[in-house]
# Entry
Amino acid sequence: MKRRTLLALPGLALALPALAATRATTMISTLRSRLPCLAFVPPTIPAAGAPLILFLHGSGERGTDLNKVKAWGPPAIADKDPAFPFIVLAPQLPEDEAWDALALRALLDDAFKKYKVDRSRVYLTGLSLGGYGAWDLAIRYPRYFAAVAPICGGGIARAVGSMRAIPTWVFHGLKDDAVPEDESARMVAALKAAGGNVKYTVLPEGGHVDAWVHAYGEAGLFDWFLQQRKA
# Structure
């Protein structure tokens, strides 16, 4: 039987949509996190716990249909591949909202209580709007993460010093007509100036979508994640 997980919120009557066939399972969150979420859990968890990826979607996946968060990246892969070795958390924003770092921290704290997570291997990635969210969350709560991969995002460059110890891999398409490549470039430059551990992949012919197709595909991001461990 395929498992299905929704992150529901106690105390709120949420009309959550029926999911298409999925490997996702159900998780109950505290009210503080406020976010409905899909959680994918490997069938076998190592004794030390499983690595976890928090994935932040882009603006096109906002709404009330949780199936939309499976469009790209880690949730799309985990939904189809039982051997994907990560616990994947894929929250969903309501229409017209942006990622809130405090709510995402609460979501992670809930996951740490519910699932057997290797806290030394917690990873963060997001695309477009989620790329902005990933930068912001890593800046505000750097101790949570072993590595971060913002894609087609940006943020407050002067604040990146707080995450200089986190291995960071940034992706952007030079021909992105939705989020200018300079948004990532200035974050990378600031992080390098702060002594950060950062590498930057720019796709010379790449547009907006191309950056995350590459990052979550042939770039080898997930193998790189598994090489990163928080002390």
